[in-house]
Structure to design on (107 residues):
């Protein structure tokens, strides 16, 4: 088995017009953080996995925990691809500075 670190990048846009929609948004955001996701930008989170198989298994779990309304996209890339991200404006987030691009996440 080849161990190539994979990174899931999750993009979401959820409705936030009512108190219930805001509650659902906050619950989903907390779910992501509690499950090891790091915020890259507002509504863009990422998580590192030791291999493709672990990432695919996690996607199945994630599908059972996403809100029913809104838009949620996920993209799987290798850690090598992730390391080539260029920041065009601004700086690394505080979390990115603390964790670094080669951070390990407990599974």
């Amino acid at each position: 088995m080849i161990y190539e670190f994979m990174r899931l990048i999750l993009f979401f846009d959820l409705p936030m017009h009512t108190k219930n929609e805001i509650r659902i948004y906050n619950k989903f955001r907390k779910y992501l953080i509690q499950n090891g996701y790091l915020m890259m930008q507002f509504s863009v989170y990422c998580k590192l996995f030791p291999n493709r198989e672990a990432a695919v298994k996690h996607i199945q779990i994630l599908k059972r925990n996403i809100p029913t309304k809104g838009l949620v996209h996920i993209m799987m890339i290798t850690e090598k691809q992730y390391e080539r991200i260029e920041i065009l404006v601004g700086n690394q987030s505080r979390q990115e500075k603390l964790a670094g691009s080669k951070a390990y996440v407990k599974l």
Notes: The radius of gyration is 14 Å. The chain has a mean pLDDT of 88.
